[in-house]
Write a structure and sequence with these properties.
globular
Length: 90
């Protein structure tokens, strides 16, 4: 599955993915839109994160409910909790 489709299925936008990877939104956007690949120092981390996102999506932990009244920080916390819940089961 392509990175863009993986993120869409999980309900994770580029900004959220960037925060999870520890890079800027612009950098993550170049990966998602296939203009550049992740730097070789980050490839393994990004691949593991994407695999975890796929697992969380398949387990039903993602996408998290979208609550327009919640803050960006609260949404990121929900996404991280969903990923950690799947990781701890592995």
């Amino acid at each position: 599955m392509e990175m863009k489709e993986t993120l869409a299925a999980a309900g994770i936008n580029v900004s959220e993915f960037a925060r999870l990877c520890g890079v800027t939104r612009v950098t993550a956007s170049t990966w998602v839109n296939k203009r550049h690949a992740p730097h070789h120092y980050l490839r393994d981390r990004v691949a593991k994160l994407l695999a975890l996102i796929v697992d969380a999506t398949e387990a039903g932990a993602l996408p998290v409910p979208n609550d327009p009244s919640s803050s960006r920080e609260a949404r990121m916390k929900q996404v991280k909790q969903a990923l950690l819940s799947v990781k701890s089961k592995a």
